[in-house]
Recover the amino acids of this structure.
């Protein structure tokens, strides 16, 4: 069933085989065998693309459900065993707002000190790739692209807003029209960030041609550049509420239907760290978001340091604040 899900999501035998960790010929043989067993074709194959048939689409939700149930069964068995050990590799995009990753990792380490926890910070698209390649066990991302073959849990969403310097021409506008943004200078995140893809698609849809003068990998740098007049920016609403944005003017984007930026937790369908991943995600309900109470920049992982330890366990044991 994992092969069916991978091929349905990727619509390409080579990419699906890479995702499933099998050779292309092995994947093709497995799919043909299942089709013979069921007595019907599950996929229409062309030289350029693979599309599920009506039977394939009918099977797909059941295939996903079986994989989810199998993963839950593995997790249940592993939880009743002895104290878990091993490693857990976690990744997150910076300043997700809806989840305090630093607090989450700290709580996890306190409860499961036998697990060596590693953390990596990167853009959402890079993190999705790392999970798909087996380089991360869990990642917190702000994108819904290429998640079909991964287990993903929606954590929440919020609208995108425009932030501009107080002396910018758009600051004097109570409401905006898309054409007002045409030709504007922008500060935006790098192309590996989920919000950058959203911004590119959103503006292109409305015919807005912009100049991205500055491309950054840090929330505070983006806000600083906007404050200094280097451009305007479209950001998730919680970023506009940060202290560093206090002097900026926030405007809703045009239209009644505001674009929604969302955050999800993702992991492989059959993660290498089954029990550890499940236990980490179970703590989400106990862990505050970055906006539940006043927090330092470090606790929300807003200020990455090049010298931050990748394995956070030694730092936590010494009581050192962790950033990544």
């Amino acid at each position: 069933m994992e092969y069916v899900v991978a091929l349905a999501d990727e619509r390409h035998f080579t990419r699906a085989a890479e995702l499933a960790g099998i050779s292309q010929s092995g994947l093709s043989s497995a799919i043909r065998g299942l089709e013979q067993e069921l007595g019907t074709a599950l996929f229409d194959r062309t030289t350029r693309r693979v599309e599920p048939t009506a039977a394939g689409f009918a099977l797909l939700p059941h295939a996903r459900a079986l994989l989810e149930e199998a993963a839950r069964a593995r997790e249940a068995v592993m939880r009743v065993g002895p104290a878990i050990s091993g490693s857990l590799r976690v990744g997150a995009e910076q300043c997700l707002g809806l989840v305090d990753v630093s607090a989450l990792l700290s709580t996890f380490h306190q409860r499961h000190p036998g697990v060596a926890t590693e953390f990596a910070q990167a853009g959402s698209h890079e993190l999705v790739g790392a999970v798909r390649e087996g380089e991360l066990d869990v990642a917190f991302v702000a994108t819904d692209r290429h998640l079909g073959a991964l287990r993903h849990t929606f954590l929440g969403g919020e609208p995108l807003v425009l932030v501009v310097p107080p002396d910018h021409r758009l600051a004097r506008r109570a409401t905006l029209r898309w054409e007002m943004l045409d030709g504007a200078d922008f500060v935006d995140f790098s192309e590996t960030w989920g919000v950058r893809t959203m911004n590119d698609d959103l503006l292109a849809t409305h015919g807005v041609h912009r100049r991205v003068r500055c491309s950054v990998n840090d929330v505070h740098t983006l806000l600083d550049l906007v404050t200094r007049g280097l451009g305007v920016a479209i950001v998730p609403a919680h970023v506009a509420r940060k202290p560093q944005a206090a002097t900026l003017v926030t405007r809703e984007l045009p239209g009644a239907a505001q674009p929604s930026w969302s955050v999800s937790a993702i992991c492989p369908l059959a993660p290498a760290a089954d029990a550890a991943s499940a236990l980490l995600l179970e703590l989400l309900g106990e862990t505050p978001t970055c906006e539940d109470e006043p927090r330092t920049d470090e606790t929300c992982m807003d200020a990455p340091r090049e010298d931050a330890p990748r394995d956070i366990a030694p730092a936590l044991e010494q009581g050192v604040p962790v950033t990544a």
